Amino acid sequence: MTKLYFHTILEQIQEYCFVKVNYESVVDWTLATDYLRCSPSFHGVECYDCASIHTVDKNQVKKYIFVQLLFIFQYTVGNHTLNLALVQPLDAPKFIPLQSIIHGALIVPDFSHANNFLLV
Fold first, then answer.
1. Mean pLDDT, consecutive 10-residue segments, the chain of 120 residues?
2. Which of 21, 40, 99, 108 has the greatest count of CB atoms below 10 A from its CB?
3. Any residues with CB less than 8 A from the CB of 10 and at least 6 apart, and which?
4. Which phi-psi region, left, alpha or beta, contains residue 12 (left: φ > 0; alpha: ψ -120 to 50)?
5. How many angstroms from the chain centroid is the CA of residue 43?
6. Using CA atoms in the order 47, 64, 98, 51, what is the torsion angle rounded to 10 degrees?
7. Burial level of 16, CB count in 10 A (0-12/13-18/19+)?
């Protein structure tokens, strides 16, 4: 009985290696597209892209943060499907709805300051 239940749970999760994000460019107000990768082996190399997302803090104040994608997946519960991502903000990992991703971001470590990053 336990084995059947475990098998059923696994069938409800579908992993994805990239997400296509459409957004309005603030440069020329046209529709732009980012292809964000989240793969342990993209052409033989790990690739975990970064993105800008919108979220709310504990006081329900809207804010924007930068994150690194760790795992993109679709989870189906009954007739409901959730498109989610496990992301690494610069402080602690969390799950977010994929719809909260605004666009991709190029973030690199600041080697002169520990635990700091630069937005390129």
1. 44 86 88 90 88 87 89 87 89 83 82 77
2. 21
3. none
4. alpha
5. 20
6. -20
7. middle
